[in-house]
Every structure is written in C-alpha cells, then in structure tokens.
Amino acid sequence: MREFLVEIVTDVPEGTDPAEVDRRRAAEAVRAKELAASGNLVRLWRPVGELRSIGLWRAADEAELHEEVLGTLPLRSWMTLTVTAVESHPNDPGRPDVTT
Fold it and tell me: Is the pTM of this model over 0.70?
C-alpha cells in the first residue's frame, strides 16, 4: 500500500439545514472509524486554531484513494482535498528497518 498526506478543508454550503450537517458529521465519524480499522486512515490531525484536517492515508494507488476511500466519506461533496503521495525518507527515525 502507498501512503498519502491529505489536507481536507470542509466548506458546508450556506443555507444547509443544520440537521443535515449533524447527520453527515455523525456518519463521517462512523466512516472514519471503519477506514481506520481497514488500515486506510492511519492518522488524522487538525492544526491548532484551524478548521482543516491533515491525515495520513493508505491505499493501493491514488485512484483507489479517491474512489474507494475518500469518495466514501459522507462529507466528501463539501470537501476540497490536496493529496500528496509520500514515501519513507532514508533518515526517518520511525522507519522499521532503521537500527540504532
């Protein structure tokens, strides 16, 4: 599986019924747990004081990431995504093959 950093900005359309927003947000939390359990969602952060998220995601390729992973998020139609494919750096102290 490949890894991707994904920046997500969610913009709820003006005039959206608050009950619809609440329903989608609740469904989003459930779906995020499912994607974490399947190994697609590895980590998710929110920069302090900002209304955006940055996540580490896994998928076979970028097409699968968009279609079968991010495309299944209940808030997806309200999201703007920036996707960056990443790979381990040779000096990454978190690499499993690094010996001390």
Answer: yes
